[in-house]
Design brief:
Layout (H helix, E strand, L loop, with lengths): L1 E6 L5 H12 L2 E4 H9 L4 H11 L6 H14 L6 E4 L5 H13 L4 E7 L2 H10 L1 E3 L5 E2 L15 E2 L6 H24 L3 E5 L4 H16 L1
Parallel strand pairs: 1-3, 1-4, 2-3, 4-8
Antiparallel strand pairs: 5-6, 5-7
Length: 212
């Protein structure tokens, strides 16, 4: 069973996704990471991705699906996948569903449910390591990174105006995708308003019933 992970900015989606990856020993598809990985490879798809990125263009949906297909072909038989950051729009959701169906893969969508107000609150208060780029939530009280001791700073795009634009894009483009999964009975809702450990606990208690 594959998982398609959703969450408004600040929901902790990336953090929880990596916890689930380790807990259930799943493969992890994160769009940005796969783009960077392919761009560094000497392959026809890698060259294609590199040219698009270097030209400063958005990667079109058909290329993103090629990347997903390439990823699927390399996943060990029987291993489940977490999809993080895809699909973002209805057309992409339809393409992904078609691809997963063709590969006989079952899937569920998971949303870390968080209000716009709390998302804005978390994003304006979070910090990032200036060295290794590890992200720390507002609840973290230290001034240096636990991993490399780098200085923690606020991201330049973590200001109220920029954040509101990103949240608006999520609501207008991605929420209809989430509603689509809900209408199909494929959506699992998790309370994202809780502390990180509590979100993890609810996720694992819920997912154990379908993944084990």
């Amino acid at each position: 069973m594959d998982l398609i992970l959703f969450g408004i900015q600040g929901s902790g989606k990336g953090t929880q996704g990596k916890i689930l990856k380790e807990h259930y020993d799943m493969a992890y598809f994160e769009t940005g990471a796969q783009l960077r990985k392919l761009a560094s490879e000497e392959s026809s798809l890698g060259h294609k991705v590199k040219e698009i990125i270097e030209a400063g263009h958005l990667v079109p949906n058909e290329i993103v699906m090629e990347i997903v297909e390439d990823f699927l072909s390399k996943v060990q038989d029987g291993k489940s996948i977490i999809f993080d950051g895809i699909p973002r729009k209805i057309v992409q959701a339809e393409s992904l569903a078609k691809l997963l169906d063709q590969n006989n893969r079952e899937y569920k969508a998971v949303i870390l449910d968080l209000s716009e107000e709390e998302a804005l609150n978390r994003l304006t208060k979070r910090r990032i390591c200036s060295n290794c780029k590890e992200v720390y939530p507002a609840s973290y009280k230290g001034d240096s990174c636990e991993k490399c001791e780098g200085e923690l700073v606020t991201r330049t795009d973590d200001n109220a105006e920029s954040i509101k634009v990103r949240i608006e894009a999520f609501i207008n483009e991605t929420m209809p995708v989430i509603k689509m999964y809900e209408d199909k009975g494929l959506l699992i809702k998790i309370n994202g308003e809780q502390e990180i450990d509590e979100v993890t606990k609810e996720l694992i208690e819920t997912l154990d019933k379908i993944l084990k």
